[in-house]
């Protein structure tokens, strides 16, 4: 469906903190495009280098593509031929960085590495986002596959249930943010080079304290009911009179405040005054808290406990969450999208439309 296109330039945030930074992106679907969109929102000029068939996300839906590619330019290049390669090299001479997420063999074959491009621009920063590393396996590595391969699925879900995948693309989004960080670090360093970011490595890194517990103490992750935290108790989802409540009590002060407000009988809590006590008696603590929370709804507990400084939230659907954060929804070219999460004093982010395929050139 055609949308009304904004009159602002594709580099909508041109006065942002990254104004003057020129980035090329040869990406598909999510990780690479998300990385470059975050940078575009902050003022970088991002030119999307697409094959004749376009980014694969164009085949999903217009809104899907817009959610990852607003504010960019698009050039359509056949990098398998000399004309496309010539145009790519022209773009490289004037660019600060290139982000690409494809199979390692495709990245090398299409000449999208620093080794292949440094002759045209020694200072260009080339960021490769792959499944298992630029010099690793060429196996397909979509988000859900990486979540399965790195232990995320195995540690998610109920103790007696099957492995569970989170409901969104955690690996792709995380890899995209990591790629953007690496790119900016190398630009600030003032030198070109190859940056290698793999989805596998990013997800293993994000398992930090769980991996450390295993590596140093031999304790593999154990699933607890309702997604309970392995160390803090009580810190999990709880059923209430209506809906579920997430509560995360990390301090003894939180605990004392909660049991007072919830009128938990002294006989049920006297033996658990410290976090160590509660961790050692997880089942009894959870039983006592669950009984107490049955007296009110999730929204009711949220209204009562938040003013007391206790970290809680009623479980919301995505539509409910978006309705409660209207300032986080922006509109560009007729698409309603989620805003960039980075807020900078003195700068108001503006958003450009997603580009049509080859809107800014073909070869």
TrEMBL record:
Gene Ontology molecular function terms on file: CoA-transferase activity
Metal-binding found in the keyword field: no
A Pfam family annotated for this UniProt entry: CoA_transf_3
InterPro entries: CoA-transferase_III_domain, CoA-Trfase_fam_III, CoA-Trfase_III_dom3_sf, CoA-Trfase_III_dom_1_sf
Keyword Transferase: yes
Superkingdom to which the source organism belongs: Bacteria
Keyword line: Transferase
Name recorded for this polypeptide: L-carnitine dehydratase/bile acid-inducible protein F
Organism: Pseudofrankia inefficax (strain DSM 45817 / CECT 9037 / DDB 130130 / EuI1c)
Lineage: Bacteria, Bacillati, Actinomycetota, Actinomycetes, Frankiales
């Amino acid at each position: 469906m055609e949308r009304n296109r904004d009159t602002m330039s594709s580099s909508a945030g041109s006065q942002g903190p990254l104004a003057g930074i020129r980035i090329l992106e040869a990406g598909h679907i999510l990780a690479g495009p998300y990385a470059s969109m975050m940078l575009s929102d902050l003022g970088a000029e991002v030119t999307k280098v697409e094959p004749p068939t376009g980014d694969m996300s164009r085949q999903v839906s217009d809104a899907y593509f817009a959610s990852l590619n607003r504010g960019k330019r698009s050039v359509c290049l056949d990098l398998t031929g000399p004309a496309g390669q010539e145009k790519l090299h022209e773009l490289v001479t004037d660019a600060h960085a290139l982000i690409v997420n494809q199979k390692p063999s495709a990245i090398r074959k299409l000449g999208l590495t620093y080794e292949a491009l440094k002759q045209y621009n020694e200072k260009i920063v080339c960021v490769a986002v792959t499944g298992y590393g630029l010099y690793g396996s060429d196996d397909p590595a979509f988000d859900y596959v990486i979540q399965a391969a790195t232990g995320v699925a195995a540690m998610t879900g109920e103790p007696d249930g099957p492995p569970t995948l989170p409901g969104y693309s955690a690996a792709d989004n995380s890899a995209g943010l990591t790629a953007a960080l690496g790119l900016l670090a190398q630009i600030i360093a003032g030198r070109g080079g190859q940056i290698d970011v793999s989805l596998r490595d990013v997800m293993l890194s994000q398992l930090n304290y769980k991996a450390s517990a295993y590596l140093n103490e031999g304790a593999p992750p154990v699933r607890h009911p309702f997604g309970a935290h392995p160390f803090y108790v009580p810190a999990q989802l709880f059923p209430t009179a209506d809906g579920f409540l997430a509560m995360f009590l990390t301090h003894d002060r939180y605990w004392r405040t909660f049991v007072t407000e919830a009128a938990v009988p002294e006989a049920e809590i006297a033996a658990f005054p410290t976090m160590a006590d509660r961790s050692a008696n997880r089942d009894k603590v959870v039983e006592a808290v669950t009984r107490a929370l049955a007296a009110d709804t999730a929204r009711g507990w949220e209204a009562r406990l938040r003013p007391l400084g206790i970290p809680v939230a009623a479980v919301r659907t995505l539509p409910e969450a978006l309705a409660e954060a209207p300032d986080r929804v922006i509109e560009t070219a007729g698409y309603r999208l989620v805003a960039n999460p980075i807020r900078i004093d003195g700068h108001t982010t503006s958003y450009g439309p997603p580009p049509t395929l080859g809107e800014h050139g073909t070869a």
